[in-house]
Amino acid sequence: MGLLNHDMKKDERPEMKHGADFVVEKQVKREDIVQNSEQVTYSTNVRVDNHVRNQLTALVNVGAAKNVRELEKKMISTAVDQLPNSDQSRFYQILRILEEKDMLSRK
């Protein structure tokens, strides 16, 4: 019991030393990791027949995109760009409503 010095006053006790002090070089904010907290992303399925699936796979294989998801994004972007301005604004309004619905249903 020689290691316990309960009878020593606080000023007489030896100072305990610990390892190196840690310094935070860059503080990470939530916004740095989570880009858009207003958007919810989850996997879903879109039903297509085997011919459409084969065409998508063939386009990916010839290098039109890295994968089917990227190819779908390119195809949607192209289709939206070809819409008249009034239809584009309707498209984005409907898309905003659907994204809000997804966000509310996943909370």
Provide an overview of this structure.
By secondary structure, the chain is mainly alpha-helical. Helix content is 49%, strand content 0%. The longest helix is centred in the C-terminal third of the chain and has 22 residues. The mean pLDDT is 85.
Mean pLDDT level: 85
Provide the gyration radius in Å.
29 Å
Biggest β-sheet: count, sense, barrel? none
Strand content: under 5%
The tally of helices reads 4
Instruction: State the helicity in percent bands.
Output: 40-55%
The arrangement of helices and strands along the chain is HHHH
Which stretches are low in confidence, meaning pLDDT under 50 for 5 or more residues running? none
Structural class of the helices, strands and pairings? mainly alpha
> End-to-end distance, in Å?
57 Å
How many strands appear in the DSSP assignment?
Answer: 0
Q: So what's the overall shape?
A: elongated
What's this, in brief?
This is DUF5388 domain-containing protein. The chain has 107 residues and is mainly α.
Could you give the topology of this structure?
Layout: H1 30-33, H2 50-61, H3 68-81, H4 85-106
Search tags:
107 residues; DUF5388; DUF5388 domain-containing protein
